[in-house]
## 1
Amino acid sequence: MQGFARVVALMLCCAGPLWAQGDAPATELEWRSASQTDAELALELSELYAVLYNSGNLAVRKASMTNSPFVEILLREEGVFMGSFFPEALDALLCDLNPGVCSRQRTAVSEKALTDVRSHIGGFSPSRGRWTTRAGSTVLIPDYSFESVTVLARIEVPADWRAADYVAPPGVECSAWKESCEDLVKRFNPPTIKRPTGTIKVTVPQRRLSTTVALKADQKSNFSKVLSDLGMTQSGSVQETDFVSVSAWSPAWDQMITAQSPSDLALDAMRENLRPVGSVAKYTATDEPFFPRQADLFKLINHPFAASGDMPDEYKRPIGVVVIDSRLMSGHCDWPKVSTTDGTELVPPVEENAGDVLAASSDGTTVELPDPECARIDELALSDSDHAASVGGLIASQDNGKGMIGLNPSAQLQFLEFDKNAVAETQIENLMNQVQRDIPEGIRVANMSFGILQIWGNFDEVEATLAAQGSRMLFVAAAGNEGQAMDDASCRILPACLNGLDNVITVVGLNADLADPRPWQTGTAATNTNPEFDVGAIAENVLSTVSKNRFAHRSGTSIAAPQVAAAASLVFSAGEFIYRDAQGGAQLAPKIVKDRLIYTADFFGELSGDVRAGRLNIGRSMHLGDAQFELFDGRRIVGQVKQAPAEFTCRTPQEDQQFQKWWNVRRLVYNDARQRHIVFRHVGGGLGDRYGTLDRYPSCNVTTESAVVRVQTDVGDGFEMVEFRFDQIKDYVSPLFDE
Amino acid sequence: MRRFLTLIALALAAPLAAQEAPVMEAYVDGEVRGSNIRVGPDSMTGAPPVLWTGEISQPGADYIRLLLRVEGDGFDASAFVRLVSALDQSFDIPLSAIPPEGYWTNLMPLGRVRLALVAETVPQGAALIIENLAVQSAKGSLYSTWGENEIKPINAQEVPQAIRALSAPIAFLSFIEGGFARTCTGFLIAPDLLATNEHCINSAETCRSMTAVFGYEFDPQNRLVMGPQLRCAGYDETFSTFDLDVSVVRLSRSPGPEYVPVDITAGISDPEGPLFIIQHPGSQPKQVSFINCAAVQMNVDGRAPGSDFTHTCDTAGGSSGSPVFNADGALVGVHHFGFMDDTDGIWTENRSTHADQITAWWTTCCPPQEDAALPSE
């Protein structure tokens, strides 16, 4: 049981009394193979059956040996065994299941071996059976139905491996990716310059087997109670009679299995292979214990969690987000399954490996142990690992009834270690190499909450590296905490000052004042500002995860940037869902997402000169398909614009700004202080273009008055047309694309 | 006062008084800036026990140090400041241990530090003041090299393992004097005794702000690493010799058994053959000069007659106080002067004092310390 049982036990401290009053229902879980070779698969299946048999949970059925007297062939024909050889343990298990046609030497295992539930058969050593079956015999065999599942796996191959030479092995099919396995491998393994010698890691599809495993009702089981509280038990769907009745256990094993929970023994032994059946997203955001501490943030950036506590399905697509940050040694109890970009899984820390959690050197400070409750706020979490953990957690913490919730719990989080301890010259070189080589294909957003100073002539090279990802990735950069008021000429911090690129967006930190936000500052630090930096987000007292299963409030632009990264992932998610069919499955260009986050922000006159747009408004940015109007009379209208003047006019001394093309305007928002509209529009392209430069003109005194705007809005199952005069528009946001 | 007494002594001892030596001072690698950050009851960011957290960052600086002061007496006895460096080293400073004149923190590498103020209660009428910042700012220093600069990082591939094995007790010294951040090099001569140049550490004031950083180097993977930092626990002028330009100070504790002290009692008189100097030139992480590194003239006059030998080992500002070893790894001298530092044209060569004279002075002036009772980390 060891650590697993301990975690279970700790979970139970908060689970319980509900279960104690009822009967224990059966539990169904998905088992999935993890082996990479046929030989490993044979052993994996054999161990599965041994665990189920030894815990009394093996489901069996009768099968007739029509073609051959060999039980191995029968199992293969019935689809309940695969692999390159037939393990002795499985032969022994089947022999014990069928004592009428098989006998074997049964030697009781030692007391020590008895505790490994995978290694024996009912308390006896595995041995080959002496079978007396013949064609036509009927025997009991395991009753499981296996499905083939293709997953992407990182494997190590010789450095001369070429994606173009890859041929999918039998049984591997990649229809889930809507392309051939060969094309998939090419897409995930683009050619790289100067490959390393020796071996490399590549991404290839691999076949896995999946089946549903049922565990019968077990009052002693701790883990079953947890599953029950998560809504994952299927009461009544499994009958006792479905399981084999065992009478051939050794006395020692019989005694052990009576004293302990059979289900927990089985679960502990199978934990590497188990996946929950169905969804565990039972909790809504407001069920998170720390949700009240996050409410202010949600309100400040107008996140949907501030209102409804949930998001529509189109925002729940697993968009890949990579956090490029300091080294992280482990996962977190409130995160989804996360990994580093080289495929290393980051598992939450448990007490017994606390020493591996953080490689920080300490001078007189007590080493913190991981929090088993997943509920501790520790404001002394100040290490670099805590930094990375806070960035990741704010993006993707789960709605799991523990701790907090991230801004996009569906994001697929990965971490890429950026070595801040390397010599300055190699930091830039390392960063470029990592961005070019190490970011997996599925990543659409990269968070970069760090800054390094420009050194010599590498600036252009870094810019070229980020620009090369312009078709697939948006980089979100923190402005930095040095309190510098920069401009184009003085801007020298990487990567923040590269936001001239279409796929780099730089985030200024703001305080937590809802009505009158200002650049974030404290006695020791302040956000860098630049009128060319793109958007602001909250940099004050933001709750997030930190290392060792703890939580802490963070301040600074490092915690502001992931808010924008999460918002970007939501726009990618919904945009590619809404527009995918029409666009033939194409991805959103990062520039489209970047511009969206800029022109949908909340504008505040006091932030002029500090940041190009105002404060991030996630709710507004996520509403992709419709135009959004707010009129001076207070009405809010959302729908498709069916009629509008092709051009409207501004009274302004700047002649080239007098005439504005409606279909290129992305935002028209009234600035109360100046009694002018601010105009954001795309210039340099054709009518309706979204790929030109996003230009801001801050001083449009709209003189187009009586022109009619007609908007088709959804009402129930139908729609209605709403009309208003152009000069009634106080705030307009264009849809992501025109219909 | 100490210098004055020394000068009187030199005047009385006529043969020793005739030496002409340039004025030597420790290498300046940064400035002290006022910061006046006040963390009082009205600026707390949290509730007890973590009252406040903050971060200070000076982009481009190799390190910073903070002068802390406590205003008022409202902090509870257990209150402390935690500093977490960019290398994730963590230092707790009890507020009760901060003297009225203030306390210079340890060196925070890469110009960045995260801070937390921890106390059981919110103080009334008391505040933590971050009064000054010492910011490393020198970008490049004058190297005193013979021919090309051939100083190598201590973990560079071309550095012999035999040399690297002797590097542990050599430390980077940072201290504040005259409103500037200054650096020298020092080396352990006993588990908690550190030797450097007298022109580096020569007063209780320089001792108070001194921190000795062990293991400050780029590792074989070219990543910056840093070992323990130990403070100067007290300055005793009897442990200092102006003539030989050597001071020995006691550290707050031993850095540990893996930092094996350099033996200064061997009394090697002749720095013959190839030499090497393990040092922190120009406030850089640990480096070594061993190529074309040898003595040139023996027994030349330094601050005292015949106290020095000249050498061709490459050095720079900040290398002062570095041990000079011969090929056997025995101490033959203590480097104390690079010719590029002399603006008066008095000394035109790199200089080291003789180890045997240091041995003679040390064994006479200062009885050996008991090692066994010293605490280790």
## 2
Amino acid sequence: MSAPGTTSAPAALWRRPAVRVWIGVAVAAVVLFGLAPAVLSDFRLNLLAKFLCLAMVAVGIGLAWGRGGMLVLGQGVFFGIGGYLMAMHMKLSDAGPGGVPDFMLLYGDGVVPGWWEPFRSPLVTVLAILVLPAGTAALLGLAVFRRRVRGAYFAILSQALAAAFAILLVGQQKVTGGTNGLNGFRSFFGYDLADPVNKRMLYFIAAGVLIAMVVVVRLLMVSRYGELLVAVRDQENRVRFLGYDPANVKVVAYAIAACFAGIGGALFAPVVGIISPADVGVIPSIGFLVGVAIGGRATLLGPVLGAVAVSWAETGLSEQFPSFWTYFQGALFILVVAFLPQGFASLGGLWRRRRAAGAAPGEPPTDPGPTGTAPGHATADDGAGTTTTDDARTAGRTA
Amino acid sequence: MTTHPLPSRTTRKRALAVSAAALAAALTLSACGGARTADAADGSPSASGGSSCVDTSGDTVKIGFLNSLSGTMAISEQTVRDSLDLAAEEINAAGGVLGKQLEIVAEDGASEPTVFAEKAEKLISSDCVAAVFGGWTSSSRKAMLPVFESRNSLLFYPVQYEGLEASSNIFYTGATTNQQIIPGMDYLAEQGKKKVFLVGSDYVFPRTANKIINAYAEANGIEIVGEEYAPLGHTDFATIVNKLKASGADAVFNTLNGDSNVAFFKEYKNVGLTADAVPVVSVSIAEEEVGGIGVDNIVGQLTAWNYYQTVESPTNETFVAAFKEKYGEDRPTSDPMEAAYTSLYLWKGMVEKAESFEVADIQDAADGVTFDAPEGTVTVNGDNHHIAKTAYIGKIDADGLIYPVWESDGPIEPDPFLEGYEWAEGLS
Amino acid sequence: MDALFSQLFAGLSLGSVLLLAALGLALTFGQMGVINMAHGEFMMAGAYTAFVLQAFIPDAGVSLLVALPVGFVVGGLLGLLLEVTLISRMYRRPLDTLLVTFGVALVLQQLARDVFGAPNVDVRAPAWLSGAVPVLGMNLPKTRLFILALAIACVVALSLVLKTTSLGRRIRATVQNRDLAETSGVSTRATDRLTFFVGSGVAGVAGVALTLLGSIGPTLGTNYIVDAFLVVVVGGIGQLKGAVIAAFSLGILQATFEYSTTASLAKVLLFVVIVAFLQVRPQGLVSVRTRSLA
């Protein structure tokens, strides 16, 4: 296979990494907007919308973990913030006379707490969904990254954060609905949620948002920032010596991942009709990673496809074999992460590399780097033009 | 290490990116636009989910069982599934419902509320079941409720719960608060207990139950000397039991869930508290939990339920014998299992009275449907869709079973909003 | 006053449980940087060992004493198996071990569910551990004193191993500088394996101890794993001292918070304190100087 940039044959156009990525995005758009609504029943389409919301979290994780090397084990927190914000707005706008959500009348003292009030406004809610998760992540990120807490330490902290957040939500039943979470939404910005047409609208919004996120990540990946992020992942100290502050680089990726998770949560609530602590704790937070790992953490579309595929498999398999599903999920984790660290996306890469055997060496990496030497830290499988790492021996290891 | 001529490459990509983004945006907008017009047209009551796809033309009718078979709640919900299966088998053997054999569509709720909502939707709209039986946790019921209401289908929910709910699409065959919590408190008051300590897991049922208990206590001259919540799965009760001991309580009302009970009772015993001096009334410990907690740790303690395996009635003898024959001698029967078993028979009764599988007909026919259940005769209340049940206070015996020591004067009418109790006025 | 002392004891007792859960982690995480999410499931295996042994040995006291070493071996062998089959392949990918071992944890949990059944089971406490010892007007439960003693015994035994045996010297050398240790003729592979065996074995012992406090279920491990990791993070890696101080401090803090607020809020407060603490000392309480950057 000829190296990109040197070929001019139109037949080889699709092999160019950049072109391939956009073809991938276009195919995804056609499938999501054309094919899926045409062939799926309302029920299955809504299910797909739910998976797309989970995939949004996966896109963010792909950026923070795959590109930035930060193992984010607490994305449930940001997913939850987004979901609860949206749910609060929906509860408030559904509320009957007096403007008090039903669960507060039942479990609380029937008084809407002050910090709920702003979310009566749709505008404030949407802004908060975009800003709060990202802001929280930025603050937390600044606090820990500046102190050079990273690698496993960061992973454990973010996991503890998810645990604490879930416990907090459960404990404040009067204002959060406790373990029941918030549910029973009737309308979404004035649109009746019981109407299948509006459910479809939600699906289209989710699909559009997801594609937009993928585009954003793609643009980031090929930007100078994207290269810096990969550099920080692979050799944080070298980047520091070059005069950059790795903490800032990481914070941006972490905040974007949090923002995506928040948006995913915000759409998840109306799509599924409930958001509860069970969706935000330690276990769901790790669950978000499964799809990313399986699809290929450092690729653009891998996390999306992985997340959708895993959720689909879970729904399908757990229906027939509930206990088998747990084994299957565990085995997937073990096998993929241990033996296929770049996920199933790397299978394509391997195949291409075999086909490309004998092609001129030293050209841009259309294939993943030799995974044996850069383990856990993927090189750009989609050939985004990022530089491969020359030395990624123990990146991510804490000191 | 190669470097690329960045500028030219990026420009080309930008252009592509912009066009793709524009495409996505346009598609999203058009999708929204479509929905908006539809929404405007929706002013007429098009009754989105109203049309039912239940097929009753053949000689079978589909019903759905939705219980958690995986995850943390599987322990409890599997028992409910077992007794539902038993009831379905019996009904089919006796000729079915309106001459139609029951065809079970079984689903796993995976202990997650979102999964319950999703599977309920699937059972109703894809499998077209006539009714769904299942759910355990409050959160699973709350998650399913909007689905059943918007699709106008029926759910039979078999577990005691925190009350304050009455949906025309749900039949509640477990106890509401005035059939379990209040009898439990009545019993303590009768025993002359004046200082009660409340301990519960941190979720909806305990918090709501304790809110009711507080109001009850105030009206009946009982002092609540402490109210503590442990996160679900909490296993260190040293501090809470310290507080309990320091409070001088003469009784404990326990709404702890699952594993926490074990740690709590072991700690309770270790600090030297006894069932004679400071009895604990539990509302979430049934026969099958006693073994896991360890009979030694809990013998002599009290429970409040509407059924025990030891309830003496001919129907119960048959039920226990049938259950043990199907699932093994060592399997006890318990309140939620009995309520689930009863729920299927009640649905059968309603369908036969209505002579129809239609939701509206069943709702109309529901009032007054009775069943001679293992716990005693139960009657459906057509207004709030709960059932009248007898309350029993039981004592845990060394053989691991629970024996009734007190029972209410006949079945108690369900009152989920506690409208019949003056002291409960400010509660909901 | 009485309440103060009881709470202090409650905190120490909670700390001893945390310590037992975290000791093995401090070893494996400290030496190898491996985040073993299946550590909690090794504890579960230890607990089920105690349950199974009780079926064979009718005397609760004897079976408990037998269960301690057997639990150690069961946990240790599981750890060894994990190390040899999976972890040894991924030493240079510490974050990935977290995910792989999480998968292992899922499988082990389901395995326990299928083998022992989903309902929790109970292990009878021996008669000599029931009741309480009156000290200064307080009743200290014997089981908690036993666990406290067990935790201290484990720490003493481990530090003796680390300080006086050649395995200990090799472990310490590997922690401080893996490459140099290897160059000096230490077989770091063999050392890793032994460390993993010992660390996982301690988890098994912790599991046996936990049967005295609560019941045993497939999810026993998940309840402790996050807390145990926090102990290790706060304690700092490379020395047991850090884990010991961290476990008891967190135990006492949690008990104090819990007494003055609620159990739920205590957990949240504890997390806030830990994040604040890591601002001051990101490397934890105690850390071995290494020559690695940052």
